[in-house]
Amino acid sequence: MRLLVAFDGSEGSRAALREATALAREMGAEVVLLRVLNPLTDAADVVAPSTAEAMVVVRQRATDEMRDAVIAVALPTETPVEVIEVERGEDIAEAIERMAEQRRARMIVISSRRAGSVLGAALGSVTGHVIRNAPCPVLVVRE
Fold first, then answer.
1. pLDDT tens digits along 91-122
2. What is the reported pTM?
């Protein structure tokens, strides 16, 4: 069994990782930690000659942050840590769903954030989209 954890560095995503780790230990499952980056927003604060070069810095920061999170919850050091970029026209939720399908995840573990819309007030726009469209069950961990 494989659990895919959507991670964005927030305290909520750290809580989702802790919950996924506990479940993985109980069920003998593998955890895959996923960070989806959008070059338009994630590279905005990086000074570099090009977006591609800025994304190298952003990807490395994300990988380091995720490795630190894996260590903090005492997962095996060989835990898969994947950093991907959205594809043209794709949003973060769609990328999470795509990776869950590609990695044959049996469950997505994701945190919720409070946002402005009715659904967003309860779940957040990315989380709400994932719940409605995921190829597998979704466990939502409150932030």
1. 999 999 999 999 999 999 999 976 555 544 44
2. 0.88
Only one residue has tokens 């719940």, namely 131
List the domain boundaries for the chain. Answer: 2-142
Give me the CATH topology for the region 2-142: Rossmann fold (3.40.50)
Question: Which residues have CB under 8 Å from 114's CB, separation 6+?
Answer: 120, 121, 122, 124, 143
> What integer is the mean pLDDT of 32-61?
94
Cα–Cα distance between 21 and 11 in angstroms, integer?
Answer: 15
Average pLDDT, the chain: 91
Tell me if residue 112 falls in helix, strand or coil. strand
Report the alpha-carbon distance of residue 71 to residue 68 in Å, rounded. 5
CA quadruple 133, 137, 67, 124: dihedral sign: positive
For residue 141, what are its two tokens? 């961990």
